[in-house]
Specification:
The chain has 1302 residues and is α/β, with parallel strands linked by helices. 50% of the residues lie in helices and 10% in strands. It is built from 49 helices and 25 strands. Strands 1, 2, 3, 4, 5, 6, 7 and 8 form an eight-stranded antiparallel beta sheet that branches. The chain has a seven-stranded parallel beta sheet with strand order 11-12-10-13-14-9-15, sandwiched between helices. It has a five-stranded parallel beta sheet with strand order 18-22-21-19-20. The protein is elongated. It starts with a helix and ends in a 9-residue tail after the last strand.
């Protein structure tokens, strides 16, 4: 609602309450309960009429009633000798059926004897003619007699009269008068009248107690107009008249008026009735704290979770979606959590359905059915007494070990369920997550194309492309790949080059002139170098020649003698021998070995005067005495050389100076000897200038080696470089190589300037080498490829950088070798998909969910759901009993004191307190015993004060409840749940009255008639989607399509799958429309009713008509046909008008359309309530009552149905429905039925081809989108398969595009 609407509603909020109050009732003579000009046909009979049956006085019937007689005879059910009596009997029969209907619809039994009547004027001069007393009675049919069973102790004063009296007289009346049972304890009529007189005097009611009342005669209740009232009445004069009427009287509306008085006095805005302060709950209820003792689908659990979060809600419940199941679970869950719940519904039958379901799960002691606040008083008092009697036993039961085990089992079940659901939810989130790649796992697999990782490198930047970027790139790539490939071809000089155009157009245009200059310089240099057999290949020439020159210069400057000696020794050797006979390799190996030996001998003392012979002798002794001797090498040497003390001292000095244990001396001796060998024989060391007096001494040898090491390294490096650049030089010497390096050094600046430009153009080393090999071709080559280069560079410049980089990277892969661009795109896309799949697997490990574990979890989840329901029901009972026994007060003898006063009151035989008074004294104790109450709006107002607040108030069938009747009950709740269906019947007055405003110019909310419509203005809404009533999809198909936009999910029963006839049948009757009836059609229906029950005694049947006259006619004819056939129609059989069939369901539903052409040929043009506003909703209710079949009796062919173009929605849809039924009934082919069945169900599951004749029927869920659209994994993989299994299906899962087969 916008800010203006909010402001407007705040200004007019007081008016809202007053207008709703006026709509509830009015206290003027326009109210038929305050001015009864005559008895209503069919529902009220003047007691005076019964004097015509057997001549007995009507007073006898009345006196028997006020004397508390058990049963009172009225007349015969049928007497062939007395037509008058039969006429009265038919009226009684009609009264009985209407009474039953009203009881079902409104939940109250309004059958009374009204006596005496008040006649007179109010103080403002308006007239009043209304009953003063109401005596509850029961109308019985016993054998061939009609009898009355009165209950005089529950007689009460007309509350409408009391309210009007208080209003007009200005005298406040005691509240007890409105609900007090008179219980005058009279034995006959006179004593009763005397007691009544005394009551009137004591109550302060100023009414003339007419002496004619004591004459034991009743006057006829004749019709009267206000203008014909006898003289003698003045304003404020009221007289009691000796008149009595048996019938139905609507009384309950007046009970709600004090509640509106309270709302007015407190200035309660209409918003506060609905918008409650949220009760602390939580976003999600843990399974271990969630009590669902009855089956529930996903949409029902969604509603329950929302309610548990503490928020008020409107629940839209289409036909057959389990509203009563939802309510029962809601009440059980709330009560188990210690909350008090009030379920309000005008229809007693709906309350009874919930009560029956709660009884089935063991809650009957904690739930009170309070539909009729007078007649239900005794059973409720007895229920409270039984509860108190059972307290001790309940306490004992709940302390047993079984209770502990049940609680543990329930908690474990909840934890396991949460674990599986959490894992499935994570799996679902991972399957459809698009935050990583812009595309989900499921869509990636569905989009998968052949890929080939071998054609791509890991350097491809797939991770830079999300889905929304990848597709445009592929489109661009496919269009421009050939251009890019031509301009960067890996097989030409274009490979690996930079974007020349990116340097600017001027720079690009200067390339030809620069290439001509470079070509000239390089050609000259190439010629000079090739004369020296220089090889133009390999690494960059500039770098190699620079390294050669650097090495030569270093050796020449640092080791001039060594370099000169090398040149002197090696220069005579031709390069062909130097590089081909292995000399260079030998030098390289020897240098490496020397370096390694020196690293191990780095601690050998220098300047030792030992020669090579000394070491050889020491080596002999070392090997001779090496062994297990503990004294080591020195002991051995001392023993062997005791004759030569001088030599021994020399060896000992060697050992001590070396600073190493004898055990390592042997290896070092060998190392030094090897150096002597290399020094004598090596080609390298023949050129090393050894110095010192003793060339063969150890110290001098090592010193020379250490000095020669840097020279050896550089020489070795120089040899290697020379071998690479001049492998085939004919006769080059060391001097030649030195000369080449010197030439390069001299021409280096010019060389660098040319090669630097080429390096910019050709950064790839291989291409650069190729270009240098043929520099003379550069100008011509560029001229030939300029256009290709320009196109490719322009394409890459215009594209996003990421696209350009990716395309260039692909040139370096084997993809570039593929001939067809389409194939490249296919491979590229396939590899992008694979990359993203790997990426998602890393981010979401849950995607590795194995099929075996998945199946195991699914079966376990369904088993947990199955086990949870009975355990939940048992634990609900335990929690309720614990709450009843909580905080009991005991005396010093440990006897219970709690509930004593309450128990005394509910077990009294006489003078019992009214429920409202009892509640004021013991309300807290009553709620501990019975936290759940099922009541009508009138019972609520009659029982609980406005300051009594239930934790949750739940409204059922709210679309049929007038808004003003729901407001007082809704105010009594801290949280409100309104359940109904705005596609079903609107509120129905049904013998009650309602004040209609002529203009509501300043009102907004009062435009909404039903309580459901009013609640929708304030509360969020959710819809129940699973349809469970109809066994055959065609029964709900029309309603689902035309009223619920296909949102209902219908699961056909397995036995309905396959070849079968349609369960929609059309029967054409040759009928005539006369006096709002079709007798021919009614007779045909009546005959078929008898035949039906003769062949289908265990099936239930209901007949729906489109007007009241046809309803009455079929009822009478069906009773006659059954009577003639000796059959008693079952209690489940009904004939109802379309106005009052909501809430009913039967196996089979028949329609009597009745409308037809009259005998004069006139075509009917009015269709009763169908033509009124909301007529289509009446039709929707009617066509959704059947479980197994629908049969239509019609005197019109659907094509002949006379619907004008200006007709309302109701008649138009009726014609479409008749066409739908006719088509289905005429097409018996199996495919027709299966099309209807699979329209919705087939979108979720696939039937196995072998399903026909199999048990169970196999269903396969294959579409992964079902997972995405499902709001609950528990529903999809737990609740629904569990329900399907119970029906006889076997569900399996074959999700394609979810698991990747690697």
């Amino acid at each position: 609602m916008g800010w203006f609407s909010c402001l407007f509603s705040l200004v007019t909020m007081g008016n809202d309450i007053r207008i709703f109050k006026r709509k509830l009732t009015n206290l003027s003579s326009a109210n038929p309960m305050l001015w009864m000009g005559k008895a209503k046909a069919d529902v009220q009979l003047d007691l005076k009429l019964f004097e015509e049956t057997d001549g007995s006085s009507a007073w006898v019937i009345l006196e028997s009633a006020i004397s508390d007689s058990k049963k009172i005879k009225l007349c015969a059910v049928h007497d062939p000798r007395n037509g008058t009596e039969n006429k009265i009997s038919r009226k009684l029969n009609r009264l009985k059926k209407v009474r039953k209907l009203v009881l079902q619809e409104r939940g109250v039994d309004d059958l009374f004897i009204a006596w005496p009547f008040v006649l007179g004027q109010w103080q403002d001069g308006s007239w009043v003619r209304t009953p003063f007393l109401f005596i509850p009675v029961d109308l019985l049919q016993e054998q061939n007699l009609w009898r009355l069973k009165p209950d005089i102790k529950k007689a009460f004063i007309n509350p409408a009269f009391l309210l009007a009296y208080a209003h007009y007289s200005g005298k406040p009346l005691e509240h007890d008068l409105f609900e007090k049972e008179l219980d005058l304890d009279a034995s006959d009529g006179t004593s009763f009248l005397t007691a009544l007189y005394n009551l009137i005097q004591s109550s302060g009611i100023d009414v003339n107690f007419n002496s004619a009342l004591f004459e034991k005669q009743l006057d006829a209740f004749d019709p009267i107009r206000k203008a014909d009232v006898p003289a003698g009445f003045q304003p404020g004069v009221l007289k009691l008249q000796p008149q009595a009427v048996l019938g139905l009287f609507t009384l309950s509306d007046s009970l709600l008026i004090p509640d509106f008085d309270f709302l007015e006095s407190q200035d309660v805005p209409i918003q506060d009735i609905f918008i409650k302060e949220e009760i602390p709950g939580g976003p999600t209820v843990k399974e271990k704290n969630f009590f669902i003792p009855l089956k529930a689908d996903g949409s029902q659990e969604e509603c329950l979770q929302f309610i548990r979060s503490g928020k008020s809600l409107v629940v839209q419940g289409p036909p057959g979606t389990g509203k009563s199941q939802l309510i029962s679970n809601l009440l059980a869950d709330a009560a188990a959590g210690g909350k008090t719940v009030l379920l309000v519904c005008q229809k007693k039958v709906a309350l009874e359905v919930v009560h029956r379901r709660l009884t089935e799960i063991g809650m009957e002691r904690h739930v009170a059915l309070w539909a009729d606040y007078k007649r239900d008083l005794t059973p409720v008092y007895e229920q409270i007494a039984r509860q108190i009697d059972d307290l001790e036993d309940a306490e004992s039961r709940n302390k047993s070990l079984d209770t502990v085990l049940i609680e543990r089992r329930f908690a474990q079940n909840g934890q396991d369920t949460e674990r599986i659901i959490r894992h499935l939810e994570e799996w679902k989130a991972a399957l459809f997550d698009e935050t990583v790649a812009g595309i989900s796992w499921v869509d990636l697999l569905a989009d998968e194309v052949p890929s080939d990782d071998s054609l791509l490198t890991s350097d491809c930047r797939f991770g830079a492309f999300r889905k929304e970027e990848w597709e445009p790139f592929l489109f661009w790539f496919e269009r421009h790949w050939d251009e890019i490939k031509a301009g960067r071809s890996p097989e030409t000089w274009l490979a690996g080059r930079s974007n020349w155009l990116s340097r600017g157009e001027n720079w690009f245009q200067s390339i030809p002139s620069k290439l001509r200059e470079v070509s000239s310089i390089l050609s000259e240099q190439k010629s000079r170098l090739e004369k020296r057999s220089f090889q133009w290949s390999g690494e960059t020439i500039t770098e190699n020649l620079a390294r050669i020159h650097s090495a030569v210069e270093f050796i020449r400057l640092e080791y001039p003698q060594g370099w000169n000696d090398c040149k002197e020794m090696l220069n005579p050797i031709p390069s062909s021998q130097l590089f081909s006979d292995g000399t260079l390799e030998i030098l390289d190996q020897e240098a490496a070995e020397i370096l390694e030996l020196l690293s191990t001998l780095h601690n050998w003392p220098t300047g030792m005067p030992f020669t090579k012979p000394d070491l050889e002798l020491l080596q002999q002794w070392h090997f001779r005495f090496e062994g297990p001797a503990q004294s080591g090498i020195l002991f051995a040497v001392q023993s062997a050389m005791n004759k030569d003390a001088a030599q021994y001292r020399k060896i000992r000095k060697l050992h001590i100076s070396a600073g190493h244990p004898p055990e390592t001396l042997g290896g070092r001796i060998l190392g030094v000897l090897r150096l002597f060998e290399i020094g004598e024989k090596s080609l390298v060391f023949q050129t090393v200038p050894f110095s010192g007096p003793e060339r063969n001494s150890i110290g001098d040898l090592l010193q020379n080696f250490r000095l020669a090491i840097p020279f050896l390294k550089q020489l070795r490096n120089w040899y290697n470089l020379s071998g690479q650049l001049f492998p085939d030089g004919p006769g080059l010497s060391i001097a030649d190589l030195e000369d080449t390096a010197r030439y390069f050094h001299q021409t280096k600046p010019e060389w660098l300037s040319t090669t630097s430009f080429l390096t910019e153009l050709f950064p790839d080393p291989v291409v650069f080498s190729l270009v240098l090999h043929q520099p003379e071709k550069l100008p011509a080559w560029f001229k030939e490829n300029e256009s290709i280069i320009l196109t490719a560079d322009h394409t890459l410049m215009e594209a996003p950088e990421m696209w350009s980089v990716m395309a260039l990277q692909l040139l370096e892969t084997e993809v570039a070798g593929l001939a067809r661009t389409e194939k490249i795109v296919q491979v590229l896309h396939g590899n992008w998909v694979q990359f993203r799949l790997r990426e998602l697997r890393v981010k979401f490990p849950v995607l590795q969910y194995s099929e075996a574990l998945f199946e195991k979890d699914i079966h376990l989840l369904q088993k947990l759901i199955e086990d949870r329901q009975p355990v939940s029901a048992e634990l609900v009972r335990i929690r309720l009993e614990e709450h009843s026994n909580k905080d009991l007060t005991r005396n010093r003898l440990q006897n219970r004191v709690s509930y004593r006063g309450l128990y005394h009151q509910v077990t009294k035989k006489r003078m019992r307190l009214p429920m409202r008074t009892l509640w004021e004294s013991f309300g807290e104790e009553i709620l501990k015993l019975i936290p759940c109450w099922l009541a009508t709006p009138e019972s609520v107002s009659a029982t609980w004060p406005m300051d009594m607040r239930f934790d949750i108030v739940v409204f059922d069938e709210a679309s049929q409840c007038f808004a003003e009747k729901g407001i007082p009950s809704a105010f009594r709740g801290k949280q409100l749940v309104v359940i109904g269906d705005d596609k079903q019947l609107p509120p129905n007055q049904l013998f009650s009255t309602r004040w209609e405003e002529e203009t509501d110019v300043d009102d907004y909310y009062s435009e909404h008639d039903s309580f459901l419509d009013l609640a929708k203005q304030f509360l969020p809404q959710k819809m129940l989607r699973g349809h469970y009533r109809s066994h055959y999809p065609e029964l709900i198909g029309f309603s689902n399509q035309h009223f619920y936009q296909g949102k209902l999910e219908m699961i056909p029963f397995p036995e309905t799958i396959g070849q079968r006839p349609s369960q929609l049948m059309f029967t054409k009757i040759d009928g005539v429309w006369e006096n709002q009836q079709n007798i021919q059609e009614a007779k045909a229906v009546a005959r078929e009713v008898v035949d039906f029950f003769r062949t289908n005694p265990s099936e239930s049947l209901g007949i729906i008509t489109f007007n009241a006259r046809q309803q009455v006619l079929i009822e009478e004819l069906a009773d006659q046909e059954a009577s003639f056939s000796g059959m008693v129609l079952p209690d489940s059989f009904f004939v109802k008008n379309i106005e009052n069939v909501q809430g009913d369901e039967r196996d089979h539903i028949w329609f009597s359309i009745a409308y037809a052409t009259s005998e004069s040929g006139k075509v009917v043009s009015q269709f009763g309530s169908l033509s009124q506003e909301g007529g289509e909703n009446r039709l929707n209710v009617a066509i959704t009552r059947a479980r197994k079949s629908v049969r239509v009796f019609s005197s019109f062919h659907p094509g002949e149905f006379p619907v004008a173009a200006t007709a309302g929605k109701g008649p138009v849809l009726l014609k479409k429905y008749l066409e739908y039924v006719y088509q289905c009934s005429q097409s018996q082919e199996a495919w027709n039925a299966q099309l209807l069945e699979r329209e919705r169900f087939g979108s979720l599951y696939t039937f196995c081809d072998e399903m026909q004749g199999r048990n169970p029927v196999s269903l396969v869920m294959q579409k992964p989108q079902i997972i995405q659209s499902s709001q609950s994994m528990k529903e999809l993989f737990g609740l629904r398969p569990f329900y399907l299994g119970k029906l006889g299906y076997e569900v399996s899962y074959e999700f394609r595009h979810i698991r990747q087969k690697l």
